[in-house]
Amino acid sequence: MQPRARLIYNPTSGSEGMGKYVADILNVLEGAGYEASAFRTTPAPMSARDEAARVSKAHFDLIVAAGGDGTINEVVNGIAPCKHRPRMGIIPAGTTNDYARALHIPREDPVAAAKVIAAGQTLRMDIGKANDKYFMNIAGGGSLTELTYGVPSEFKSIFGYLAYLIKGAKMLPAMKNVPMHIKYDDGEYDGQASMFLIGLTNSIGGFEQIVPDAELGDGLFTMIVVKTANLGEILKLIAMVFNGGKHVDDDNIIYAKTSRIEATRTDGEPLKINLDGEYGGDTPMTFVNLSRTLKCSPTWMISRMPTLLRRTSCLRKT
Q: What is the mean pLDDT of residues 82-103?
């Protein structure tokens, strides 16, 4: 029986040009032996998630998510709860494309990204579960974590990544600490913090130095808790990020590997949680690493990948 592939693409991602590549992408998939078809997401809430769930339950072999990190997150949330999980391919078309960056998938050429998928190489990836939702790259709460959904989509379309930098510069002086309780595998923290981040890859907000020792598919999150909101100290930490990831040793940082995190705000107020750049609910929230749950297509240029990908043991043909 001929394997089936469904392209789920967001026509409004990034510069809103994905639609013109659909025919070429389908041709690449058909050339790889798939019976290929496409679904154009709609303005309805969770359009991509619902289509991914429907296709998974129909036992398709491959789902290709074409869009930004938000679209990819929806597709992951459609696949993850299903008993049958198709292989997932990614065609980046957003502003930061963190997940594609981590997997070294071509980010400027959708057809080249489709050829990566057609090559058939598969990497088993961890995903995170946050209460009843899923994320594939980053979760967090506190100052700056609301940055991604605080930038209007039309502003992102025009200015791209610059839009985030502009918004971030405006938000820095307004950073503040809130009381948090964070419990993880090897300890817990009770105290003031401006934010916490939970990473599954080394790419957060377009930066690869924030989690310098990330390993894909190791069953562990990388957790960062920032214990200061002082502007001078925050700027110092940012400088240390660019200076080889030295922020991880600073006294204002808790940096740990963990498979589970429980986070809450202890003054009774809710803390908004960001999941892959989108609002994902409020604390209290429990984050669990679902090890090697997702089969994903990375670049086939394995020899050119950085150490973080080469040293993981989960790369295999499936």
A: 85
Tokens of 113: 């990204």
Band of pLDDT at residue 18, cut at 50, 70 and 90? confident
Residue 304 lies in a domain: no
Bigger pLDDT: 66 vs 205? 66
Full domain range(s) for residue 33:
4-119
- Residues 286, 148 within the same domain: yes
Per the structure, the count of domains in the chain is: 2
What CATH number corresponds to the domain at position 201? 2.60.200.40
The pTM for the full model equals 0.85
Higher pLDDT, 128 or 277: 128
Q: Is the pLDDT of residue 313 over 90?
A: no
pLDDT in the model for residue 14: 61
Tokens coding 198 = 């939970």
Q: Give the 3-state secondary structure of residue 140.
A: strand
Give residue 161's pLDDT band: very low, low, confident or very high (50, 70, 90). very low
One domain, residues 272 and 139: yes
Note whether 102 and 66 are same-domain residues: yes
CA–CA distance, 68 with 163 (Å, rounded to integer): 15
Residues sharing a CB contact under 8 Å with residue 150, sequence separation 6 or more, in sequence order = 167, 171
Token pair belonging to 38: 């496409």
CB 118 within 8 A of CB 106: no
Same domain, 212 and 272: yes
Same domain (yes/no): 271, 184: yes
Radius of gyration of the chain (CA): 19
Helix, strand, coil percentages in the chain from 3-state DSSP, rounded to 5: 30, 35, 35
Q: How far apart are CA 220 and CA 311, in angstroms?
A: 15
Query: Which residue out of 30, 233, 262, 278 is catalytically annotated?
Result: 278
Catalytic (active site) residue 278: yes
